[in-house]
Amino acid sequence: MPVGEPAEQITADCAECAMCDRTQSGTVPVLGTSGGRRAVSNASLPREKKLKARVQELVSALERLTKSSEIRHQQSAEFVNDLKRANSNLVAAYEKAKKKHQNKLKKLESQMMAMVERHETQVRMLKQRIALLEEENSRPHTNETSL
C-alpha cells in the first residue's frame, strides 16, 4: 500500500499485527511530514516496545541457532577427521596384512618348489635304480657254474 494512503482495505487483524508501519487510524505515516512518525510515536509506543522485544527475541534466537549450527559444524568436522584417521589406519593395516600374506605365499611357493625338486630327484634316482636292477636281472650271470 502506498505511503499516506487510507487503509480502507486493512482488516482489523492487520491493524494489530505489528508487522508494518500502519497506525491504528488506518494510514501509513509519511516520514518528514507534520503528521508523520513523531506525532504517531506517542500513540504507538507500546507497539514499538512490542516490536523491539520481538526483534530482540528474533536476534537472540538467531544467535542461538548460529551458535548451535557452528557447534554442529565443528562436531561434524571433527567426526569427518576421526573417520579419515580411522580409514587411514585401516588402509595401513590392510596394506600390512596384504604384504604379510604375500610374503607368506612366496615362502610357501618356495617350499613347494623345493619339495617338487626333491620329489623329481627322488623319482629320477628310483627310476635309475629300477633300470639298474632290471639290467642286472636280464643278464645271465657268468660267474655261476652250471651243473
Automatic annotation (TrEMBL):
Keyword Protein transport annotated: no
Domain Harmonin-binding protein USHBP1 PDZ-binding: 50-116
Coiled-coil parts of chain: 48-136
Pfam families: USHBP1_PDZ-bd
Keywords in alphabetical order: Coiled coil
GO biological process: negative regulation of canonical Wnt signaling pathway
Superkingdom per UniProt: Eukaryota
Record has Coiled coil as a keyword: yes
Alphabetical list of InterPro entries matching this protein: USBP1-like, USHBP1_PDZ-bd
GO cellular component, one term: cytoplasm
Name of the protein: Harmonin-binding protein USHBP1 PDZ-binding domain-containing protein
Origin species: Eschrichtius robustus
